[in-house]
Specification:
The complex is a heterodimer.
Chain A lengths: L3 E9 L5 H17 L3 E17 L2 E13 L5 H11 L3 E8 L2 H11 L15 H8 L18
Antiparallel strand pairs in A: 1-3, 1-4, 2-3
Chain B lengths: L1 H8 L12 H5 L9 H4 L12 H4 L3 H16 L12
The chains are: A alpha+beta, B mainly alpha.
């Protein structure tokens, strides 16, 4: 059976030290690979401002995993159970990627959407994005976060 | 007499640029929920979704926009409620 691609975004508490953060991320990576998942990509946005407070915290560490697994492997259930048990995780979101999303993520990884990094939207940004869109190349305007290189 | 009056008060048609679906036009197949800047044109300053009749998005992509905005809100990249966000 063909493998399905999943994407999982978690927000970790900002009170973590660097060591604890990498420990937490490593444990989830192990969980993914240990349950028959194949880690395709991971991304760390670093400390990012939240749009609204979660558990009275205004910032959080964003961590994104993209992995492929058998659709009947229940890997997402296992992962989400671990997220729920972990008090360091403020918020999580796991989604199944369709074929367009897989292509999009691949292009994003390869830097097809190169734009100067800006974590927070500035006032002029949306307008720029709007005008830049109908270019002949079907490129969705997307900035790549520079933290992913870290 | 009535006929002439009707004729006189007939409004001139307002010519507007035809709306188009920007996803169809630029060939975007997948809407990334992790990019709040990209979703900004589809929400108003309170953070609510704009209707199709304003943005011109086709039904197929409006559904995808809605899902993307909701996911974006969940991971706290867009607010659920806001007063002045633009």
């Amino acid at each position: 059976m063909a493998k399905t691609n999943y994407e999982s975004v978690i927000i970790l508490t900002p009170v973590l030290s660097e060591k604890m953060l990498s420990d937490a991320v490593d444990s989830y990576k192990k969980l993914i690979t240990g349950n028959g998942g194949e880690l395709i990509h991971e991304e760390n946005w670093g400390l990012t401002k939240l749009a609204y407070p979660i558990q009275k915290k205004n910032t959080g560490f964003y961590q994104i995993f993209e992995f492929a697994a058998e659709p009947d492997a229940e890997i997402v259930d296992i992962l989400e159970l671990a997220y729920r048990r972990d008090e360091q995780v403020l918020r999580y979101l796991s989604i199944k990627l369709d074929k367009h999303a897989v292509i999009y993520n691949e292009r994003r990884r390869n830097g097809a959407f190169n734009k100067p990094k800006s974590e927070k939207p500035t006032e002029a940004k949306p307008v720029e994005a709007k005008t830049a869109e109908p270019t002949p190349a079907p490129v969705e305007v997307k900035e790549t976060k520079s933290e992913e290189e870290e | 007499m009535a006929k002439r009056n009707n004729y006189r008060f007939k409004k001139a048609p307002i010519v507007r640029a035809k709306k188009y679906c920007r996803f169809k036009k630029s060939g975007i197949k997948y809407i990334d929920y992790k990019n709040p800047d990209f979703l900004m044109p589809f929400i108003n300053e309170q953070g609510k979704l704009l209707p199709r009749r304003i943005t011109g998005t086709s039904l197929k992509y409006q559904r995808k926009v809605a899902v993307a905005v909701k996911r974006c809100r969940h991971i706290a990249l867009l607010p659920y409620v806001a007063d002045q966000m633009k």
